[in-house]
Design goal:
The chain has helices at 35-62, 117-122, 126-130, 142-153, 159-169, 184-223, 232-237, 255-268, 279-286, 300-306, 341-348, 372-389, 407-410, 414-417, 429-433, and strands spanning 98-103, 106-112, 173-176, 248-251, 276-277, 315-320, 325-327, 336-339, 366-369, 419-423, 453-457. It is α/β, with parallel strands linked by helices and 460 residues long. Strand 6 (315-320) and strand 7 (325-327) form a beta hairpin.
Length: 460
Amino acid sequence: MKGAGVDDEEAGPAEDADADAEEVDIDAPDEAVSDEEEEDDEDVVLKETKGSSAARKRGDAKHSETLNFFDSFWQDPPGPLGAATGGTSSASADSAAQQRFALPGLQRCEAQRRDVLAVQKVLQKDTDAASAWKRCTLAPGLQEKFEAFLESEGLAIGAQEGSLFMFLHSYLDVSFPLHTHLNARAVRAVGALHVVDHVLKACQEVLFNSAVSNAAKRRKKNDGEPAKIEEASDLLASCDSGFTRARVLILCPFRSACHEIVRMIMKLFPGSSKEVGNAKRFEEEFGPQEDDGADSEKPADWNHLFQGNSDDRFRLGMSFSRKKMKLYTPFDRSDILICSPLGLRTITGAAGDRKREFDFLSSIEVCIVDRADVLAMQNWEHVQEVMKVVNHRPNHLKGIDITRLRPAFADGKARQFRQTVVTSAGQGMDPEALFALGPKDNSLQTSTNLLQKWRGGGGV
């Protein structure tokens, strides 16, 4: 994918000549390993996954209502939201066409086409809402990382942001019109926590299924037994991938916003900051410049938006491995894409353009539109054109293991399963319309029960 990870005038990330010598190239070819070493790596993955399951059970014993919705993300049709795993709520999802309720810090909330009673019960008081993220089952080590991050940044998660994270963790479509300069860092922090949690769990699922499959093949080879046809249930359980690797798309208005989000993700990543490839280059291209200080004559909200690098044409790919993270990765080798609508549209184009490329957006599972009100002031058409091709079926199938493809992608239902999150300072018709926007070949009318939306507002 030519130039997918950077601007057109820059060198492609695969041929990054400007990367610093001391940084580790985690995409470099691995040294040859023996079968015994490969078996040891797979055993480590299996043990880590079993340890995570045991930790979840201990967490469930400690908190009978520990919430984990990742395992039910691909459930079709979606079941009622409940505690831990397999829990149910009293009301039917079909009977909850529209619910209006109040939460701590969010006095006017509305849920459509989904019963959220189980989530509301966790958010009864201000203290419950502010610490709600602690009751969620996060990826191994992530809760400790987030606690350390909050302490080092002097950041506090209030009832408003805690309630927001609970609905993000529930994989509901969310419209949050209270994203202002006053709570921007806290809102982006819980968003980054959700993104890292989702990617780490998804990567662990892929590693585990690969380890199980390779171990089974090795046993058959050593025993001299012919390969057996797997049960349908086993095949379905190993379906853990989409057409392409990218799972998360974040659209934000400026490089300064991208810089803040990426730094949060870097601090939440289980590895150390030294294990982030191309970190110095990122600081040079996305970090604040010498003349990017605050303007004392401007109001606080203006300085929040435009202080730092206010370039609105950029795109960045991020990849995760078991112990390392790398920036400026090509989009077909990235787990997270953080782009401005303008930067992304230079690749995706629009209907009628002769040259377009958007296959790398076909398997997005979580899409976050950060500060939609600012994006509307730039050029809302860019946002609309980009969102139209997210989860569009790819035109070319390259390097796809069809045995690992999730049925939702094969059936053209990726848009219905995708979580869409829109934050803004104030409500508007354009941001709300994004929830109904998608590729034309994926009919939304046939699966309206899979569209889950939650709105929060106060005094509007």
